[in-house]
Design brief:
It comes from Flavobacterium proteolyticum. The protein is mainly beta. The chain contains five helices and 45 strands. The longest helix is centred in the first third of the chain and has 10 residues, at 33-42.
């Protein structure tokens, strides 16, 4: 017990009497090779077996690497059968409590045929069971399980490729090469630890559907894991002699034993009476079709046909005419005690009933050219009343087409096109089904509108006449041609025409209102006098501005203004009204002409009183800074004299002390 797998093995020993031997398989080394093949593996009076031989380990204790196993009362899938091992079969019974790796340093060689079959050169500890047989039927099969200590539950990464090898080698007498029957179903890949393994360890799973389990200590065998029950099978020629060699060996070294369990009585000679006719295989019988099955065998003395395991009265000929679905089998007798069987499964293709074959869509794009996208997956589900879930339906543009149409198909013929539905996985029973695709259009051009809505007013939105239905996105929805709105927002109406096609028109309602002039910011006494018209933030509209009530601009800034009186007009662009206000631009004259003609005879600042600046002080100087005149903004100004003396034509300077705290300085010309 130095090779303990689990530290709690002593616990298992402690409960040994409770579990009893019925928990685990037992082995028997007393069977002769002939008995193992004839009485255990084949167990049929029809067996014609000869040249049976077995070879394995030559243990000094006389123990064997092959023999009989009994699993009655255990959870092991086989009740009994043959075991072939790379170690002592006495180590095969459970519990799975220690590592079995017998056969080291005893000159126990591998097998050349196994090496060739698996492409190996380093096998050891080979156990071989081989025999000749003459089959009655044209097919042989037998069941097996591959078990191995190399199915480690906690391997290191370098152990992921550890594997032993085995093969079931078959050849007809006279043939040169063997055929390996121990392969993963549907492939030529040999069954080994690294080709059939489940998930749950750091080693990658492989063909996990064929892996049974990693074993705990209570397993009926002393192996770390095993495959599911697998079936080896091959076609054979009745009456011919075949040789079969069942061999297993360690690969690389003697460590980590493996075993093959062959199911007792599972080696069968059967008759191939034809392929199953199944929907899944694409070859069911069509409705009304019959199938004559022929089980004729040389030397047969009688036949009995069965449907769903029930004998068919009177069906005792070598042939049988199948007219309905079911599992059919035939027993072929070769005398009172010898019998072979054949089986075939029959399904019939469903009679498909059309539910709907014309499908209409509305042209969904803006071109309205009679072409749009059809979802063929949706059409498939609506086409037939009784389409089975496992039927594969594809669509083609023409009955002769071989290129399948995409699921989202845009018709290539405007307005009306016929495509064809084809059942892909049931060949020969259905012709193509025509499917009509129709495209309706909405030809009316809809133009979205943007409309202003003045404060405290309402507005009627009209979607236009001539449509079969209307639906507005109001809350709750409204279904009339016109609606009344009294607030801004986005209003959408879905219009449906007589062809049941729809479009959406959008009304963008922009709330608006008459402006409130909050301020006019004047920047005057400048080379470029300007005014900025400020509208109150509470004003809702989009406004434009004018100084003459005729020509409007978007900008609220007016520049290059001469001195004088102005009226600014502020107009709502949505028609909600106009407001206006007067303002004054102040500036000083650049010259004056005091010649008594009544025009421009005095130099003064006009409209100071209009800005409440009439109390401003204006001081005039000559070019030498001499004070000439000081007047208030309310006076008429300076007449060009000093102490009654007429002053000469020249430039004069001034200072204006505005009552708002601003000081203006400059010069002007006196001209005579």
């Amino acid at each position: 017990m130095s090779r303990l797998k689990y530290t709690f093995f002593t616990i298992i020993i402690g409960f040994g009497f409770q579990f009893g031997n019925a928990q685990n398989i037992s082995v028997d080394e007393g069977y002769t090779p002939q008995d193992l093949v004839e009485d255990i593996l084949i167990n049929s009076p029809c067996a014609n077996v000869f040249n049976v031989s077995v070879s394995g380990g030559n243990f000094a204790s006389g123990e064997k690497s092959f023999g009989y196993f009994d699993a009655t009362g255990t959870t092991f899938p086989f009740q009994n059968g043959i075991i072939l091992s790379t170690g002592k079969i006495n180590n095969a019974p459970g519990p799975n409590s220690y590592l079995s790796d017998d056969g080291g340093s005893m000159g126990w060689d591998g097998d050349a045929d196994l090496n060739e079959a698996l492409g190996l050169s380093n096998t050891f500890n080979a156990t071989v069971l081989e025999f000749d047989f003459i089959p009655l039927g044209n097919k042989i099969s037998f069941d097996y399980i591959f078990s191995s200590e190399q199915y480690l539950t906690n391997p290191s990464s370098n152990q992921c490729n550890f594997t032993d090898g085995f093969a079931f080698l078959l050849k007809r007498n006279g043939d040169i090469s063997y055929q390996n029957l121990a392969v993963i179903p549907g492939t030529t890949t040999p069954v080994k630890v690294n080709t059939v393994r489940g998930p749950g360890t750091i080693c990658p799973p492989a063909n996990a559907a064929y892996f049974d389990a990693f074993n705990g200590t209570t397993h009926p065998t002393n192996f770390n894991g095993q495959t599911t029950v697998l079936t080896a099978q091959s076609d054979v020629i009745p009456g011919q002699t075949y040789h079969i060699k069942l061999v297993i060996a360690d690969e690389g070294n003697y460590r980590y034993d493996s075993a093959i369990f062959l199911g007792g009585g599972s080696f069968n000679f059967t008759i191939d009476i034809g392929d199953d006719r199944l929907i899944a295989n694409g070859n069911p019988l069509c409705q009304g079709e019959n199938l004559v099955v022929d089980a004729t065998q040389v030397g047969a003395t009688g036949y009995q046909w069965f449907q769903n395991n029930i004998a068919i009265p009177g069906a005792t000929s070598a042939t049988y005419n199948i007219t309905s679905a079911g599992d059919y089998s035939v027993e072929i007798n070769y005398g009172p005690t010898c019998q072979t069987t054949g089986a075939i499964k029959i399904e019939y293709a469903e009679v498909l009933t059309i539910n709907q074959n014309t499908f209409t869509e509305c042209d969904a794009d803006t071109t309205q050219d009679g072409k749009t996208i059809f979802n063929l997956d949706t059409i498939k589900n609506q086409l037939f009343i009784n389409l089975p879930s496992n039927y594969i339906v594809s669509f083609f543009e023409l009955p002769t087409s071989t290129t399948e149409l995409p699921s989202n198909f845009t018709n290539t013929i405007a307005y009306n096109q016929t495509i064809y539905a084809r059942v892909m996985n049931v060949q020969g029973c259905y012709s193509d089904y025509p499917v009509n695709l129709r495209v309706n259009t909405f030809d009316t051009v809809l133009v979205d509108e943007t409309i202003g809505l003045c404060e405290n007013e309402s507005l009627i939105l009209d979607a236009g006449s001539g449509f079969s239905s209307y639906e507005w996105n109001t809350n709750p929805p409204q279904f009339t041609q016109q609606i009344t709105v009294n607030s801004g927002g986005i209003y959408e109406v879905t219009l449906t025409n007589a062809l049941n096609c729809s479009k959406t028109k959008t009304f963008t309602i922009e709330a608006s209102g008459i402006a409130t002039i909050e301020d006019i910011i004047i920047n005057d006494f400048q080379e470029n006098n300007s005014a900025i018209i400020q509208v109150a933030a509470s004003s809702l509209g989009d406004y434009e501005f004018s100084l003459d009530g005729v020509n409007y601009q978007d900008s609220n800034v007016f520049s290059n203004l001469s001195a004088g009186e102005y009226t600014v007009y502020v107009q709502d662009k949505k028609g909600c009204g106009i407001v206006f206000e007067t303002f004054y631009i102040l500036d000083y004259p650049k010259y004056f002409t005091p010649n008594g003609d009544g025009y421009n005879d005095t130099w003064n600042i006009k409209n100071l009183d209009k800005r409440n600046l009439e109390n401003s002080i204006i001081t005039v100087f000559d070019r030498y800074g001499k004070l000439i005149k000081q007047v208030s903004g309310a006076n008429e100004g300076w007449n060009g004299t000093f102490n009654g003396e007429i002053l000469p034509s020249t430039d004069y300077w001034f200072t204006i002390e505005l009552t708002n705290g601003k000081t203006i300085k400059g010069h002007f010309a006196l001209k005579r």
